[in-house]
Amino acid sequence: MLSKIKLPIDCFGILVYIIPMKSKIKMSVVDLVILGFLLNEPRNAYALAQLVEKRNLSRLLKISRPVVYKSCRRLNEAKLLKSKTIRDSEAPERVIYSVNSQGKKHFYKLMEYYSSRISSFHFESNSFIWNLYHCEYKEGLKMLKNLQMELTSLLTGMKTHEKEDAVANANFCVRMVVKQYRMILATKVCWINEVIEEYIKQGGTQ
Amino acid sequence: MLSKIKLPIDCFGILVYIIPMKSKIKMSVVDLVILGFLLNEPRNAYALAQLVEKRNLSRLLKISRPVVYKSCRRLNEAKLLKSKTIRDSEAPERVIYSVNSQGKKHFYKLMEYYSSRISSFHFESNSFIWNLYHCEYKEGLKMLKNLQMELTSLLTGMKTHEKEDAVANANFCVRMVVKQYRMILATKVCWINEVIEEYIKQGGTQ
Description:
Two copies of one chain form a homodimer.
Chain A: E1 5-6, E2 17-18, H1 29-40, E3 43-44, H2 45-54, H3 65-77, E4 81-86, E5 94-99, H4 101-115, H5 125-130, H6 137-163, H7 165-168, H8 172-201
Antiparallel strand pairs in A: 1-2, 3-5, 4-5
């Protein structure tokens, strides 16, 4: 993003800004998704936000309508996009974005980046496990069984989803992501079963 | 949290506020962790933040020093904590928090809440998989192998960590969380191996 750096001194009564010719753009997983969509076809920010919602991408990463708009602005300001304003007598003005050659380079840089590092992943329910020792045995067991039921039903849902036409006939990439979620849920079901077994065996969290 | 609601009319020249007697506090996984720590022993916000860092809790959930401070303020304002100010001639004033009976009720409510729902979980590297079809075969394969190497080395590290005294001798809850991470990493290694196999078999993402 172009950033204006204000000099400490107000030279000649005019505030002086240095605008760096090229500035670093941070690595962003949202930018990767937006550039990917724009490589398929030029779109405006509104259409991108709709696509993100339609594809249920918020399941895959922390993404929302305002985040999509911000990403478009950021990529455009960093000169990684071409923008074209469409004026139509009926509809309001629209800015259509497409990826330029610098943007394409940045896309592959992001692909390289996210294929070479695993950022930490969080499961909110682990904060419950972490604090289980504050619970009485029976109460703790009831809560563990809540989690077991929740995970088992999520796994069943995911297995059904995987067999639906929209996924079964989808491209390799989509199928692999869904497969991963199914495998992880299956692992979490195994894990909670083992946790409950051990919890019962030792009569609590001792 | 107590919130002041300003009336639209300035009655009698004095601004009128309605202070609700009881207000709803949102469900927060950070509040769960903070209440859990305070149930063990009373502490000030600084000591809590240090504990979070020492226990590497940022691996488990999105938590940071400012988030800990905010949680203390929020819980205290919601009257879920008792606070006691310690004045010492040598050190600066400290506010020590402990959990009151309302706070204890809220803790169990949070435990119940997080044991009964799985929030969506995100893996940043999936945005790379999602966009793999933009890559040439050889380039895509190289990136998939990056991910394979990364996941395999994380799994090795986690297995070593699990055998270290600090984990092996830890309480049930800590051991179960570490076990879960190891099982998930093992699943992700299986998954990437299968992805690469299928990618090679069909010569790319077709």
